[in-house]
Design brief:
With about 375 residues, the chain is mainly alpha-helical. About 50% of the residues lie in helices and about 10% in strands.
Length: about 375
């Protein structure tokens, strides 16, 4: 009987190349997986918009603006937090195909751009963030596979069966001596993060299906869940990074995001859940609201035909415009009633009553001129 160890992998090999050569065209696999991750996010956002009976084309509009802003933010964040890598030649900061995208910068840049788009189109920003929240981990998981082809973002040495093989030229200097004496493998932290993101996506979809969270809280759950995983994964990594008080800057940033997301969830936990807000009727303008407002007891009831439907009754309750024709010697003033909303006039003029024919005597108080206010 073969031992169980014969069926277990001894290590995870690293790809021998990071480029697909198509003659005059070279495709960087790192960039390819980043692009595939973006496509996956857009498609999933489109699906989630359809689930909520919203226009799925919103995903395309957001992608044209949010994705470039996210890439720029991701690169800026990486250069700022790892500026020592570029102090000798700052032009290397523009070589994005060689790797170096900070996910916190991507999220910040994307949210700022998305807020501008939602403000322009008058969309609900919190609702859009909730829709995107469950899709972001999928794109991040796919994009992390690009780090595998670049042989980067690995952790400390390990003898676990899923240890990652790294070529000697990509091993940090402090581990070169150990690598020369024996085979050495490292924690595949990029794979840990990819699997964590897939699990986070599943949890967010499950939570969202319950429709119990207030609008905007699902995105906070995404930030809380991603930061929770990124902190412990960051502590395993051994690649060069800027540090603050002996701790990697990314750990400080993720800790701040974790605390911010937790505070958001706790301080706003009493808001109505998303299923309650979605069931609220659409907002009415003042004119529509006044039509639906019941008449008070002090207002006189209008003479309405009980046979009329509700719409006609509402129209007949509008103001009646009365026009008085010049007085005639024989018949007196003729009074016409015009229905302002119905556009109908009475078939024949009504004769004014004798009281209307005889002029009223003004009282002394009425005849006296009133002072100007």
């Amino acid at each position: 009987m073969l031992p169980l160890s014969d069926f277990m992998i001894a290590s995870i090999p690293s790809p021998s190349t990071d480029v697909i050569d198509l003659g005059p065209l070279e495709i960087r696999l790192y960039g390819l997986f980043i692009a595939l991750g973006v496509v996956a996010v857009v498609l999933m956002v489109r699906w989630r918009l359809t689930q909520r009976s919203l226009d799925p084309d919103i995903s395309v509009i957001l992608a044209w603006i949010v994705v470039p802003a996210g890439l720029v933010g991701a690169r800026i964040y990486h250069v700022i937090t790892d500026w020592k890598q570029y102090q000798d030649d700052w032009l290397d900061a523009f070589k994005i195909w060689e790797g170096g995208l900070g996910i916190p910068g991507a999220v910040i840049g994307g949210v700022l751009a998305g807020a501008a788009v939602c403000r322009h189109f008058k969309w609900n920003l919190s609702q859009q963030l909730d829709i995107v929240a469950a899709a972001l981990p999928l794109g991040q998981a796919i994009g992390r596979l690009g780090n595998w082809f670049n042989q980067e973002l690995f952790g400390r040495p390990t003898d676990l069966p899923w240890g990652l093989e790294i070529d000697r030229e990509n091993i940090p200097p402090e581990y070169q001596a150990e690598a020369a004496r024996s085979d050495i493998t490292f924690h595949p932290t990029f794979l840990y993060e990819a699997l964590w993101n897939l699990g986070l996506m599943g949890v967010l979809l499950w939570v969202d299906s319950k429709r119990k969270l207030p609008t905007g809280h699902l995105f906070a759950c995404y930030v809380l869940g991603y930061a929770s995983g990124r902190i412990w994964i960051e502590l395993l990594r051994i690649d060069e990074a800027s540090k603050l008080l002996g701790v990697r800057v990314n750990v400080w940033v993720m800790s701040a995001l974790w605390l911010g997301a937790l505070a958001w969830l706790l301080l706003r936990r009493d808001r109505p859940s998303s299923d309650a807000t979605d069931s609220e009727p659409a907002h009415l303008d003042e004119d529509s609201a006044s039509d639906l407002k019941p008449a008070s007891d002090s207002e006189p009831a209008s003479d309405q035909d009980p046979g009329l439907d509700r719409e006609s009754a509402a129209q007949m309750s509008s103001r009646t415009v009365r026009a008085v024709e010049p007085q005639s010697a024989e018949t007196g003033p003729e009074v016409f009633d015009f229905e302002a909303d119905l556009g109908e006039a009475s078939d024949s003029p009504r004769q004014a009553s004798p009281e209307q024919n005889s002029p009223r005597q003004a009282s002394p108080e009425q005849s006296a001129p009133k002072p100007e206010q």
